[in-house]
């Protein structure tokens, strides 16, 4: 954990969605969120909240077979939701044209650790872990000044002060 990271323990799926909503309301085009954590850690549940907070009412599910879902909000903003679980290599990930996704909207990647070499350096990492039935831990780690600023705002909204 670095000085500007953030730890959070969620005690329900609903709480994870609420946390995601706050983060989603702060996301801007070009931002990249990299989610890691095992099956059932709560990555898609967090994205459900993020999409809602970002302003889309589109249905959010794991894009396991299509690899990328796109959620739209009324002003035309795009949120790309990728699941890298079945992506075999960083090379294959490059074929997915991440640059185009980042230039047209924000991007969230589940299983991002599998394709980390294909991702930009400046991203906000979120590592999720199963603790107990309803409990999940999350560690947010920002890389680069934009992501540090994003996390600082998010912390402020979450914990106040
Ligand atoms: N505190 C919590 N936060 C998030 N999810 C929780 C929590 N407590 C229970 N859950 C449940 O755990 C499951 C998490 O599933 P989810 O699809 O979000 O995981 P995932 O990390 O995306 O898994 P996968 O790698 O298979 O896509 C959901 O059924 C959710 O309701
Ligand atoms: Mg998922």
Global mean pLDDT: 93
CA-based gyration radius = 14 Å
Q: What CATH first level would be assigned?
A: Alpha Beta
The percent range for strand residues is 25-35%
Major sheet size, sense and barrel closure:
7 strands, mixed
- CATH topology title: Rossmann fold
Strand order of the largest sheet: 1-7-6-2-5-4-3
The number of domains: 1
Proportion of residues in helical segments? 25-40%
Enumerate the spans where pLDDT stays under 50 for 5 or more consecutive residues. Answer: none
Number of DSSP strand runs: 7
What's the name of the CATH homologous superfamily? P-loop containing nucleotide triphosphate hydrolases
The SSE order reads EHEHEEHHEEEH
Task: Kindly describe this structure.
With 161 residues, the chain is of the alpha/beta class. The protein has one domain: Rossmann fold, CATH 3.40.50. It is built from five helices and seven strands, in the order βαβαββααβββα. The protein has helices spanning 13-26, 43-54, 90-94, 98-104, 145-159; strands at residues 6-10, 32-36, 68-72, 78-83, 105-110, 124-132, 135-142. Helix 1 crosses helix 2 (43-54) and helix 1 packs across helix 5. The longest helix has 15 residues, at 145-159. Adenosine-5'-triphosphate (ATP) binds at residues 10-13, 15-16, 37, 39-45, 62, 110, 134-136.
């Amino acid at each position: 954990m670095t000085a500007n990271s953030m730890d959070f323990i969620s005690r329900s799926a609903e709480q994870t969605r609420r946390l995601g909503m706050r983060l989603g309301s702060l996301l801007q085009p070009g931002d990249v969120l990299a989610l890691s954590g095992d099956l059932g850690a709560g990555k898609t549940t967090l994205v459900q909240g993020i999409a809602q907070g970002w302003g889309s009412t589109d249905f959010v599910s794991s894009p396991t077979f299509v690899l990328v879902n796109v959620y739209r909000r009324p002003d035309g903003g795009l949120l790309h939701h990728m699941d890298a679980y079945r992506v075999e290599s960083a090379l294959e990930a490059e074929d997915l044209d991440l640059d185009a996704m980042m230039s047209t909207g924000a991007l969230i990647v589940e299983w991002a650790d599998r394709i980390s070499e294909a991702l930009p350096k400046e991203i906000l990492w979120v590592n999720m872990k199963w603790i107990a039935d309803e409990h999940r831990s999350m560690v947010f780690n920002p890389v680069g000044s934009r992501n540090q600023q994003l996390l600082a705002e998010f912390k402020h909204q979450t914990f106040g002060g």
